[in-house]
Amino acid sequence: MVKIAFHNITKQYPGASRPAVDAVTFDVPEGSTCMLVGTSGSGKTTLLRMVNRLIEPSSGEIIIDGTNVLEENPIQLRRRIGYVIQQVGLFPHMTVAENVRVTADIAGGWTRQQLNTRVDELLNLVGLPPDEYRKRFPRQLSGGQQQRVGLARALATDPAILLMDEPFGALDAITRARMQEELMRVQKDVQKTILFVSHDIEEAFKLGNQIAVLSEGKLVQIGSPVELLARPVNDFVRQLVGADSILRQLQYLPVSDALEKQPEAAIQNNVPTFEAHATLLEAMLKLLETNAPGLKVQNNGSSEPLGYITLASINREITQTRTQPAEHIETKL
Ligand SMILES: Nc1ncnc2c1ncn2[C@@H]1O[C@H](COP(=O)(O)OP(=O)(O)OP(=O)(O)O)[C@@H](O)[C@H]1O
Questions:
Q1: Which parts of the chain are coiled coil (predicted)?
Q2: pTM, whole model, 2 decimals?
Q3: Do 189 and 69 reside in the same domain of the chain?
Q4: DSSP reduced 3-state for 8
Q5: Domain boundary among 240, 259, 284
Q6: β-strand partners of 295
Q7: 332 domain residue, yes or no
Q8: Cα(160)–Cα(226) distance, rounded to whole angstroms?
Q9: What percent of the residues of the chain are helix, what percent strand, and what percent coil, each to the nearest 5?
Q10: Where does ligand 1 bind, in terms of residues with CB under 6 Å?
Q11: Which residues are within 8 A (CB) of 175 and not within 5 positions of it... i.e. 6 or more apart?
């Protein structure tokens, strides 16, 4: 089911020579994560902030659950939408518990007991044991822990939608990877619809069910990470998603993309079996590790092979993806 639908959404800032967001149309399915990527100034933050009406669109519509956000009271709208940004913005004089509670408190309708239970639930959810962290102040937390509190706070009113604007951008690589894992774990439990702005294509591949690529306010392509990698619509997307990187392709393309149906007999006999959803990299490592001439690929639980994978078929798939013609456009990376 579609959760957020953008219809020709446009934002023209006064005095600007072109729209910051230009007639963008796409859907975000319920419970999925859509990553917004693109060069600096391509309109990602503007697009995100129009969803909770921190920025008002110039034209077009954003429909959430069938209702145009412009017809909603902005304050009520923001209660239904969690918002996490890079500068976490915790209140320095409030404890962690008070910081998490504050949004739910403002939204109202909770008893003190319910609020306390909710805070503990959320702190557990984001991996901060309440007994240890409830009473700390933000200055007594690391950057990553502060981001976790920010995430807990955004989840406090149990919003169906989360908007995240470079939430992990200021963290070191290791903490960032941990936070991404944490978010994936939380998302498994809570199934929010997430719109996530990122400058980090690795992050977009890791977290996104869909990736929307913006350039100069326009939506250039939207698709799953594998779609973008295998079929970038032009050189801009190809470069942005690193479709020319052999490692990226090996890491993300599934073995089902590189099957041989009728390989020679030696490959069909006595070779190890392999799962269809595994990546080309995993298949290649297995081939190197076992020294087998091929792998029999089958779906979980089925004995019928879907096909076979060999170093040659992996090579063919990668060469083909790399040389696919793409429309040429100027790239400004
Ligand atoms: N309040 C504003 N008034 C006028 N122009 C603005 C305003 N905010 C953003 N812009 C312009 O709109 C365009 C898109 O900005 P936006 O912040 O949405 O891009 P972005 O893709 O999020 O960029 P970045 O990746 O650098 O954060 C830019 O050209 C920017 O200069």
A1: none
A2: 0.83
A3: yes
A4: strand
A5: 240
A6: 309
A7: no
A8: 26
A9: 40, 25, 35
A10: 13, 16, 20, 38, 40-46
A11: 142, 143, 144, 168
Q: Could you tell me if residue 258 is inside a domain?
A: yes
Helix or strand holding residue 288 (H, E) = helix 280-290
Task: Report the distance separating Cα 208 and Cα 225, nearest Å.
Answer: 7
Claim to verify: residue 26 and residue 65 sit in the same structural domain: yes
Ligand 1 atom index nearest CA of 48? 18
What is the count of structural domains for the chain? 2
Name the percent of the chain lying above pLDDT 90: 44
Q: Model ipTM?
A: 0.97
* Domain at 316, CATH number: 3.90.1280.20
317 and 231 in contact (C-beta within 8 Å)? no
Choice from 9, 11, 22, 42 to test ligand 1 binding pocket (greatest atom count within 8 A of CB): 42
Q: What does the pLDDT look like over 228-249, one tens digit per residue?
A: 888 889 999 988 888 778 888 8
Residues 117 and 7 in one domain: yes
Q: Is residue 32 part of a domain?
A: yes
Whole domain around residue 292: which residue ranges? Answer: 248-323
